[in-house]
Amino acid sequence: MIKKAENIIVGISIGDLNGIGSEVVLKTFEDSRMLELCTPVIFANVKTISFVRKSFESTAMLHGIDRLDQVVVGKINVLNVWREGFDINFGANDETVGKYAIKSFVAATKALKEGLIDVLVTAPINKYNIQSEEFKFPGHTDYLDRELEGNALMLMVQDDLRVGLLTDHIPVNEVAKHLTESLITQKIETIKKTLIQDFSINKPKIAVLGLNPHAGDGGVIGKEEEEILKPTLKKIFDKGTLVFGPFPADGFFGSNQYEKYDAILATYHDQGLIPFKTLSFGKGVNYTAGLNKIRTSPDHGTAYEIAGKNMADFNSFKEAVYLAIDIFHSRNQYESISQNPMKIREKQEEKKY
Length: 353
Hints:
alpha/beta
């Protein structure tokens, strides 16, 4: 593999080929300036992606390879994960297409584990058509949590807005029983470490939202805040982590209170994702924090309703690539500084002047 030191190899799992994933991938890398920042490797099949390219009259130039040591810097590399052909019907929910989405994802994850790619960016999948005897996971995050080291945390990112989840893909009526001291402590430790090593924030401030309306109103509307959240957050704060809350979720974002914190932890999926997606205007990124490898994805799904119509907005996918690259650099810098304490002192001295 011919690789410049500064050129990051970005692995891309192609997602559901009947959705908009392949479209946003190709649109992102039509801009030649992207190839100056990184070298993409699409895990799919070059004939399949060529078909998609023709469908959208894309100007992206593809370079097919059979092994990762054949990657060429400055090209849009397509690694042939499969050889056989299959029908692509944009907008259709198809189990066969789901099977190939997982083939792409599993191969890309293996390459990430082995250090053959630097970061992974995943195009959207359909959580229903990917299920099989071999793959029984709700989505990308759960599989990565098993395959990689660390504890995965779903963190939505758009500039300085970062929203994490204490619980993610579980039914709302099961959220309360999952809010244990152990889980809360683990998630806050994970997000604190992430903010320090991946976003270069030395003393991060973290806000936690309450589960119940008005954060329980002192126990009148639910007991979880008084019995679990408040005592746990106090223990964590007393040990030196700047964690605050629980805050009533309804007014937290509308009053711009979120701007005072480096990250916000929501207690369940929609409590965090609805305000995040409202504020991020299609440029949000889903980052799987807490793992020893870097994975990002756009904040949208397969969007079958517009698939094949050349209407998809690629900005979220492009931002996912940018964020993966930024985190890669931040993490490498953090590891370098951690190995050489003198660099920490030098940085602190620089800030005085």
